[in-house]
Design brief:
Elements (H helix, E strand, L loop, with lengths): L4 E7 L3 H12 L4 E5 L25 H14 L3 E4 L2 E7 L2 E6 L2 E10 L3 E3 L15 E2 L2 H4 L7 E5 L3 H10 L5 E5 L9 H9 L3 E4 L2 E8 L3 E8 L5 E5 L2 E4 L3 E3 L29 E3 L11 H19 L1
Parallel strand pairs: 1-2, 1-6, 2-3, 6-17, 8-15, 9-10, 9-15, 10-11
Antiparallel strand pairs: 4-5, 5-6, 7-16, 12-13, 13-14
Helix pairs in contact: 1-2, 1-6, 4-5
The structure holds NADP nicotinamide-adenine-dinucleotide phosphate.
NADP nicotinamide-adenine-dinucleotide phosphate binds next to helix 4.
Length: 305
């Protein structure tokens, strides 16, 4: 076997991929995990993970990911940092092309996760990194004592709004409905936070500024009324889309781009498994992603025979 040949390749280093790595390596399968950025995936952007069993006081997301990685590498998992640029089926081999060369394996576990959805409004791209952010944990502290806004009404938006409230003078939460999607416990925290101000039934239509963000143009979706809001930053937290572009035409997906699997997390292609947020019907939690990683690795290892 050459240096670039493995028994299992895992794409993605979030809780799904890293847990698959732990199981595959403990099964003594020669396994490579390829990650684009940092270990932990989405949880690396979460300051406090409170719902991962075993940590009654919660744990920093940016600590939990590397800990999972350390555990997997202890059992022999090999890690490659780089971007996957293509995947090809060649006989019974799965070829994974990356910015750092080509790798092959008989079994592939796709655990590429999700990426933040964009608002798709004028000014969003222009002011990215200049007041438009997709990560409050990363950028929140830059907005000390100034007003900021956050778009979205789910768990992520509320978690991030509460984080922003530690720094900003005021946090406007702009939501397209008049009820939050977030879990009740997070809603209670948000309603109790004096710095939070809710802008209901509203969407951002344009982000304006000069060098940096200065103002948001808003539209009330019920009345059609147009208003504006003076803020120094806008955090976009309106959900995620699956990172499955590279697998189109290789494995069947649903309309939303999530990969379809059976209960063993096998796709329609023999030897290609899926774990975590990228699969259809995922619960989108770190713990369920980790469970998926274990399931996919166990069935991949059995499939290899
Ligand atoms: P989400 O649950 O899909 O919520 C997305 C929010 O953005 C919704 O409130 C949605 O409005 C709004 N939205 C979607 N598209 C929009 C658009 N084009 N314009 C304006 N608003 C838009 O996404 P999420 O909050 O990122 O959470 C994703 C998953 O991660 C969830 O399963 C969540 O439970 C999990 N998570 C959990 C925690 C935790 O502490 N347990 C923390 C973070 C994330 P509508 O409500 O009207 O659809």
């Amino acid at each position: 076997m050459s240096d670039n040949e493995y028994e299992i390749i895992i794409i993605g280093g979030g809780p799904a991929g890293l847990t698959a790595g732990i199981y595959a390596s403990r099964a003594r399968r020669n396994t490579l995990l390829i990650e684009k950025e940092i270990m932990g995936g989405q949880i690396a952007n979460t300051e406090l993970v409170e719902n991962f069993p075993g940590f009654p006081d919660g744990i920093n997301g940016y600590e939990l990911g590397p800990k999972m990685g350390e555990q997997a590498m202890k059992f022999g998992l090999k890690m490659q940092f780089g971007e996957v640029t293509g995947v090809e089926l060649r006989g019974n081999l799965k070829i994974v092309k990356t910015t750092d060369g080509e790798f092959s394996a008989r079994a592939l576990i796709i655990a590429s996760g999700m990426e933040r959805s964009k608002l798709g409004v004028p000014g969003e791209e222009k002011f990215a990194g200049k007041g438009v952010s997709y990560c409050a944990t990363c950028d929140g502290a830059l907005f000390r004592d100034v007003p900021v806004a956050i778009a979205g009404g789910g768990d992520s938006a509320i978690t991030e709004a509460l984080h922003l409230a530690r720094f900003a003078s005021r946090v406007y939460l702009i939501h397209r409905r008049d009820q939050l999607r977030a879990t009740k416990i997070l809603q209670e925290k948000a309603f109790a936070e004096p710095k939070m101000q809710f802008v209901w039934n509203s969407v951002v239509e344009e982000i304006e500024g000069e060098e940096m963000v200065k103002r948001l143009r808003l539209r009330n979706v019920k009345t059609g009324e147009k208003t504006h809001l003076e803020v120094f930053g806008i955090f976009v937290s309106i959900g995620f889309k699956p990172r499955t572009e590279l697998f189109k035409g290789i494995v069947p997906m649903n309309e939303g781009g999530h990969i379809i699997t059976n209960e063993k997390l096998e796709t329609a292609v023999p030897g290609v498994f899926v774990a975590g947020d990228v699969r259809q019907n995922s619960a989108w939690q770190a713990i369920t992603a980790a469970g998926d990683g274990a399931t996919a690795a166990i069935f991949a290892e059995r499939w290899l025979g």
